[in-house]
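This is your field. Have a critical look at the following sequence-structure pair:

***
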Amino acid sequence: NPLVVADPSFGEPTPEQLAKFSAVTKPGGRVSKRRSVTNARDLSEVYFAPLGATADEARTIRKLFRESNVLTGAHATESALKGVAAPRILHVATHGFFLQDTANAVAGSAQVTSRGAGANARIENPLLRSGLALAGANLRGGSGDDGILTALEASGLNLWGTKLVVLSACDTGVGEVRNGEGVYGLRRAFVLAGAESLVMSLWPVSD
């Protein structure tokens, strides 16, 4: 059956981590909800803001495909996604990110928008610099289910027989171009995993 993963519970980081994240102060001193971090040196400094409207996205898809399995909130985990076995359609609505290589990026030029992340990073493998945020992504958990599905991890999914993968997030089509090799990023990862067709974005999108 089709599988929809949407509106993950990213969790709230520690007060020390929160001090790094941006908030908008409105007239009268009121502080609005935190937005995704606009600049970061690496993934440890990125903050993934909630994506409430992606829950509506999931409900709408389920009306079209009533046999769909839907994972939201605390159930939209990295482990759950790794455990899928060739759903006919896979639709993932969350934050996507591609961390720029500091060797090729101008300091401060990488940005994170509402559903995507760009950040300066010292990671050479581009399949480790791109990925999707899932439940617990802000908590910086252990090496097991840390809430971050990197492109390298995505390449190990069981999607042989999956007709369509939709990565409904920012910058999911972005990657690093290597001469003679093509683009390294989420697209390559999901093709390696067996997906027959992909729908991705090359730009930021709202929830």
About this structure: DSSP finds six helices and 13 strands in the chain.
